[in-house]
Amino acid sequence: MTATQPTPPRRIALLGFGEAARAFLEGWTREPGFAAGVVAFDIKTNDPATRAAKLADYAAAGVRGVESAAALVDGADVVFSLVTADRAHDAALSVAPHLAGGALFFDGNSCAPQTKVLSAAAIDAAGGAYIDTAVMAPVHPRLHRTPLLISGPHTAAALATLAALGMAAEEQAGPVGSSSAIKMVRSVMMKGLEALVCECVLAGRLAGVDDIVLESLDDTYPGFDWKKRSAYMLERVMTHGIRRAAEMGEVAKTVDLLGLDGGMSRATVAWQSRIGELRLDARAGDLSDHRSLADMILARLAPSHEGDPT
Q1: For residues 287 and 231, is the Cβ–Cβ distance under 8 A?
Q2: CA 197 to CA 220: how far, in whole Å?
Q3: How far apart (Å, rounded) are the C-alpha atoms in residues 143 and 302?
Q4: What pLDDT digit, counting tens, does each position of 182-210 carry?
Q5: How many CB atoms lie within 10 A of CB 203?
Q6: What pTM was computed for the model?
């Protein structure tokens, strides 16, 4: 990045309008002098079952929603792709023919490096500038200041633009896929740990030994606070399990293509999707109590044990 004052983008396109896009937008609007026009398009607006809810999301965030990928990127100098991992390549293909020359395309989706290489080829061939972008932490509470890793041939321009938006990004040296490789391998542990906690805590509730097990884990790993962390992880899977399952499918692909067996990651897909597909509202329970959240899940997963977790 040069020493000159970075030039803020004039028009930002948000491809996908889920938790990450809304968090970035909220953060940008808190930046002094933020004046970029922001437009959004989410494929859920094309589904009658989800259209009203997504339009309500646009209204609540004060952003202009459009009806197509082509309309989204018309005149945009910056595009953030923030969709589910299984839709990321299709999303890139949908906007590529309509990009303005030189438009920066930040692919912030949790995809295998090989998937990002394919998307980069499509974006760059269309005259855009593809940036492999890995979101390295939950977007709350840091919003647009959530740490990012970026890689590929366009990082100098990307860093300048992200700095102008008040974002926290670092360059990961290497070609497209370098940042995503870090994110994917890290997710083996991060999302896999969530799945292990689900299996451990739910089995513990059914056996009547969950408190004893978690207290034992605190003895083995002092300072982790397994009861508090378990409640947090259960809530994350309840709320975001479907999206996490899509990400872990890409993680399994990454491990497979490295010549290993991504079986652990595929098992994580199973737990994340199984709980996510219940579509439970964790806020209906006690977010600080693993037992409350576990019992909500068990009431749906194992009806014969409802009301009798022991």
Answers
A1: yes
A2: 15
A3: 37
A4: 999 999 999 999 999 999 999 999 999 99
A5: 13
A6: 0.89
